[in-house]
Input
Amino acid sequence: MTSIQPLTHTAGMERARRHQRALGCAAFGLLALVAELVGRSLTHRLDVGRHVAAPSYAGADYYPFLLAGVKVGVALMLAAIAWRFVRARAAARAGRRLLAALGKRPAARAPRVRIDLKPRLWLAAFAVTSLLYLAQTDAERIAIGRWPSLAPWLHTSALPVFAVLAVVVALVFGAVARWLADYERYASAIVRAVHVAGSSPARHPRPSSQGSAPRRLFGLSFESRPPPAPA
Output
């Protein structure tokens, strides 16, 4: 029975990691889609080297559904982030209270948000946003009878715009993902410290001197008599 419980706990942890990894990939894709919509709008406003007619994507039939889907996705993503933080913070607060009741303090402090730009994350954000823009623009060009090509990249300011927006996506996603992961590890460390402190043998306090017998307190001196008084 004891060998089955660790295996079940390990399987649950692996399933939770896979679930968080899938949520992270979905959140990254949603941020990339939001950046693509923002970058598309900026590309049409920045008229630098333009040789491609600006498609009327805002008037397309699918655009209201795309906008509604993005808004719902952003709301769900924010709700998932808030739920992960609230759950981790509740576990950390409960663990700190139990440690304080046991007379101990947590070994580490609560983590803070760290801003760091990883080149691989920036490259992934740039590739996803620019490819989304190219695919969507080529699909609109096919609808009006034009063959898809690399013209939306070569003859517009799309690539510089998405290069800058990819920095924002990488910074926001990396900072939030690292902070959530650090906070969950912090909460898990506090819970483990509570388990260790609770499983350690309790120290019994020494008996108070008020309830001890006089012979125990004073030993043989309690048996000796005082010297005789002078005549």
Remarks:
- The helical segments are 4-45, 63-101, 119-143, 151-154, 158-199, 214-218.
- The radius of gyration is 33 Å.
